[in-house]
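Subject: mismatched residue count in predicted assembly?

I count 749 residues in my input, but I want to confirm that the predicted structure covers every chain. Input:
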Amino acid sequence: MFTILIIEDDTDLSNFLTRLLQLENYLIFEAGNGLEAETILKNTQPDLVITDIIMPDQDGIGTINMLRKKHPEIKIIAISGGGRILSADYLEIAYKLGAHHVFSKPFDNKELLVKVKELLGQK
Amino acid sequence: MNGLKILYLEDSEFDVEIVRYLFEQEKIKFNLQQVRNKEDYLRQLEDFKPDIILVNFSLRSFEGIEALHIVREKNPEMPVIFLSGILGEENVIEVLKSGATDYVLKHRLGRLIPAVHRALHENREKAKRIQAEKLIHKYDFIVNVSRSMFTLVDRQYIYEDVNDAFCRAHDLIRDEIIGKSLSKLWGNEVFEKYIKKNFDQSFSDNIVRYQAWFEVPKYGLRCFEVTFYPYKELGQDVTHTVVETIDITDRQKADALQKMLYTAIEQAAEIVCVTDSEGIIEYVNSAYLKVTGYKLKELIGKSFKIMLTKEHPDEFYDQISESISRENNWRGNMKIRKKNGDPVEVYSSISPVRNSKGEIIQHVTVQRDITDETRIQNYLQHVHRMETIGTLAGGIAHDFNNILATIIGHTEIAMEDLQKENPSFHDLEQILKASNRAKDLVNKILSFNRQMEPKIEAVNIGSHIQDTIRMLEGSIPEKIKIKTNLNEKCPPVLADPSHIHQIILNICTNSFYAMRKKGGTLYINLQNQQLDENFIRIFPNIKKGKYVRIDFRDTGTGMKQDIVKGIFEPFFTTKPVGEGTGLGLSVVHGLIKNMKGEILVESKPGKGSTFSVLLPVSNMQPVRKK
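Triage response: the counts match. Full output below for your records.
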C-alpha cells in the first residue's frame, strides 16, 4: 500500500483529496502547512507528496525545497491555485525546484490519479 | 520822476516857496508837504510816505538831528537833505555823521536840485544792489541746497564755480576746485579722453546729455545722468558750460527690477492677467494670448467677463469676489473660455492690488492650464483602480480555485458511482458544467491581471505582426488592405509581448484612421537594420548595433510638418472632441523608448505617412508561443 502525504491549507480541498485518493486505496496523511508536514515526516516516510504551492507559514516552494534536500526519493506533485501573488510564475519555479509534476486548480480528477499512478510506478 | 513826494520840515513859508519854485523850474512833478513840528512830522511820515525829506537844520522847536534819527530808525534808506544857513564845520561833520544824505546851504539853493537827484539816484542804486544781493542769496541757496551737482566751467576748461553737492560728493572744499582746470583735477588723460569732447559740444551751443556709472569718493559707484548746458553771459555767445549731474541710481535699479519682473512674467508658462477695479483688462502676458487664442488688441480694454464660462453658477463667482476682498486672495480650479469658445481648465490665483488708502485699484490673476494635468490625473486614477481590481481579483482567485477544485472533485467522484440513466447523474453533469464555466471566468480575470505586469521575454516580431493583423482583419473596412513583407531571419527582440502588441496595434489604428475616407493600403515591412555612427549622431540616445526595423507605410491623408512635430505628445490629437484620447502614439513612443529603440516618421500631405520602428535585437532564443 502506498502512502501519500497531502499538504494543503484549505480544509475542504484537503478532505476532498483524501476522499479521492482513499477510494483508490492509498494511505493518506494530511498536513495543513509545511511545518506540520515536517513533523509527520519525522515518523512516516510517504511515497508521494501532494503539496499546494502558496500557503501561509511555509510556502509550498519552501516545502518542495526541503523535501528534495531531506527526502529526495519522495515523489512530489505540486498544485497551484494561481492568482494571489502575481509577479512570479510559481508553477515554473516549482518545476525547476524539483516537483515531478504540476497541476493547476481546479484539476481533472482522472488526470491527477493517472499521474499519481505513474509516479508511484503502478501499472 | 513821477510825483516825487517831498516832506519839508520848515517853518519859513518863504523858504518853502523858494524850494517849490526850484522844483517847478526843473519841470519835476512833485508833491511838497510842509510840516512845522514834530507831531505833524511824525504823522506825515506815516500818511504821506515821502520819497525824500528836506530838513531845516536850524529849526528851534524840533531839532533836525532828532528828525533824522526818527526817520533813520524806521527807514534807514530814506534820503534826508539838510538845509541851513551857514554851518560851522563841526555842525557839518555832525550832520553827515548822523546819517544825513546831504546838506545844502540856503544861500546856495542852486545845489538843492542836484543834491536831490543825487540822493534819489544813490537810493535807487542802493535798492538795486540790495535787490541783486537778495536775488543772489536766493539762487545761491537754491543751487547749494540741491542734491544734484552743479558746476560752472569757463572756456578754458577751468572751474569757475561749483555747488555744495559737488564738493560733498568729491570730498573736496570749494577752494580746492575753483580756479583749477578740469585736467588738473581729474588727470589729463581722463579729461582728454572722456570729458573734453562734451564740453566742446556744449561750447558749440549744444545740450549734451548721457547716463553713466561712475565712482564718486563719498558714495561709491552710482549711476548718474549728466547734462551739459551751454551758458551765455548777457549779450554774448557761449561763455561757459553749466554741468548738472543727477544721481539716478535708484531709478536705474527700479528700471532694472521692473525689466526683470516684466521678463519673468512675459516668459512664464503661467497665464497672467491684470484688470482695473472694474474688471477691464489692462495687461496680459504672452502665455495668456497663446493659451486663449486671442490677440493682444482683442483683450486690452475689454471686460474680463468675456473669459468667463456659463459652466460656473453666479454663486461661484460671488464667492470668489468675497474671498478676494476678505482674504486678499482666491485660489482654486475654474474654467475659462478660449477665443473659439472651448473651455480651458485652469488653476487660478487671484489677488487685489490696493492703494495707500486700502481701496482695490487692480486685480492680478495668475492661472495655470491644468487641462492636461486633469486628464493625466484621471488617467492615473483609472490605472490605479484597475490595479486595485487586479490585486483583488488575484487574491480572490486563489481561494476561488480552491473552492472550485473541491466542488469539481467531489462532483466527479459522485458521477463515478452513478449510472448515466440515473437522473442525479444529469444534475451532477450540470454542476460540473457550471463549475467549468466558473473556472474559465477566474482564468480570464487572472489573465487580464497578468497584463498589468511587464514580462520580458525574447519576442519574435514577425509572428506578433501576423497575430495582430489576424486580429484586426476582421474589423477593418473593405477598402483598406494590409500587405506584409516580413523577413523571417529577423532575430528576436527582448520585450514584453503585450507591449509589442500595443505598439503594432496603435500604429495600425492610426494608419487606418488616416485611410478611413478613401481607403488604401498599409504596407508592413520587417527587416534587419544595422545602426552606425551617422544615425547615432542624430539620435544620441540610441546605441550602435543590430536592430530590427518595422516600417508601417500607409497611403492615407498624410500630415503637415507641424502636426508631425506633435504626434507623440500626450493628448495631441487631430481627431474631433470625443474621438480618441490622443494617447495612442504617445504610449507607443514611451514603450519604444523604454526598450531603448527609436521611432521615425515621414509624411507628405496627400501622399501618406511612414512610421519606422527600430528595436534592438536580443541574443536570446525566442519563447515558443503556446
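The radius of gyration of chain A is 13 Å. Marking this ticket as 'not a bug'.
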